[in-house]
From TrEMBL:
Residues 1-99 form the Integrase catalytic domain. One of its GO terms (biological process) is DNA integration. This is Integrase catalytic domain-containing protein. Gene3D superfamilies: Ribonuclease H-like superfamily/Ribonuclease H. InterPro entries: Integrase_cat-core, RNaseH-like_sf, RNaseH_sf. The keyword Membrane does not apply.
Length: 99
C-alpha cells in the first residue's frame, strides 16, 4: 500500500490523492481516490470497504512507513484480523517488486 498524488477531478468531495493497493496473487492494482488529510481510521475504513469486503482479509500487507499505517490503532487492527504488516525500506519504493 502506498499513497500518491493524483490528478482527479476534485468535484464536490475534493479528492486529491490515491491509496494504491497491489494484489500479489493476481498482480492487479487498485487505486482508491481519497483525501491527503485522511486519518489512519479513514484509510482503514477505505481499505476494509473497498478491498477486504471484495477480496477477503490479506495475509500480509506491505506498506511504507507512513504514520497512517504504523500507529497502534492500525497494528492492533491487523493483529486482530490475523494478518501481518510488513514495512518496506525507506526511500526504496520498489522493495516489494511490484508497483
Amino acid at each position: 500500500m502506498d499513497w500518491f498524488k493524483g490528478h482527479i477531478s476534485r468535484g464536490k468531495y475534493n479528492l486529491n490523492y490515491f491509496l494504491e493497493i497491489v494484489d500479489r496473487f493476481s498482480n492487479s492494482v487498485r487505486c482508491l481516490p481519497c483525501h491527503k488529510e485522511d486519518t489512519e481510521m479513514g484509510a482503514e475504513i477505505l481499505f476494509w470497504n473497498k478491498i477486504t469486503e471484495k477480496f477477503g482479509v490479506p495475509r500480509i500487507i506491505i506498506s511504507y512507513r507512513d504514520l497512517k499505517f504504523t500507529l497502534e490503532v492500525c497494528t492492533d487492527l491487523y493483529d486482530m484480523l490475523g494478518n501481518k504488516l510488513a514495512f518496506s525500506t525507506a526511500y526504496h519504493p520498489w522493495t516489494d517488486g511490484l508497483a
